[in-house]
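[[Encoded backbone]]
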Amino acid sequence: MKVARMTGPRKLFRGMRAVLVLLALAGLGCVLNAAGQAADTSTKGQDAPAKGQDASGKTQTAPAKPDSAQKSDSAQSEEIEAPPVTLPATSTPEDRIREAWAILTDAAGNAKHTQTRLQALAALGLLRSPRSSKMIANAMTEPDLDVRTAAVLAAGQTKDRNLTTNIRNLLDDKEPQVAFAAAMTLWKMNDKSGEDILMSVVNGDRSTNPTLLHGTKHKINKDLHDPAMLARMGAMQGAYMLLGPFGYGITAFQFMHQTGGDFARASAIEQLSQERIEPVHRELIAALGEKDQIVRVAALKGLMEYHDNATSMAIYKLFVDSKYPVRLTAAAAYLRTMGTPGPGIAPVVRLPGSAKH
């Protein structure tokens, strides 16, 4: 009996998936390795230009980063505290829904602080409604490359196929970071429009022309063959998968070094929250009061599918959190508990008291 061999496009697709996964993991590995060196490098003058020697022994200064990379690094180093606010003594569910949308809308339109806008887009990615999708789509047309990239990643998080046309428009973006994010996001949504871009990344230096499997053709930026740029883009994808609202806009290693967040606890919360039972529910509610903002965000995301009044009110209290990722995630989580759809289809859990909304 002969065993059929996988040939042609199927074999190529499977190989490409494996390479792309390895690219993301390799990039994330670069980020995590940098975390261990952050303390040492910070004492040696982070802004000093890198120097080396040429063949004659003369000192040379490394070339400056492209403007886009410098701008991106500047945005990523920025971490803004949320302004202090006070919750009203009394409010209706409608009032709280309006307040949640106001938190997200104001942050997404914060022209002064790019980092806040990126975190708002990550929170909007937890929703799947016409209002949130419109804000994400609008962000894809912004001049800031980090905002466009974050909008693409948020669109992928929503799994909303109504946004695929907007994402496709960015396959020809002048910034390779945006085009790569668009191609990766579309591929994960089973849309092969950006496959020639991904094939160009896979081919690397072997070819300057993309392999066309479905007749598509986009502008292939030469930086997509640059190892440093590939590492950066892989790190971006890997960090976003690992850190969610923290993993893009502020570099992963910098965030971990500055906050010392407990990612092990956050990962455990994420896994446990998939089991919708009352003991887990109580632990998630308790975790909202933890000092670690990463743990608070993980607990909020774990509570989004509970539609009882007690859970909604516990989430509402974090509308005043001083950390933007927590406050923004709380706004999105509250909307989810009040019926705003989210990515995919998840079972609705109703606990005693759900009729009191």
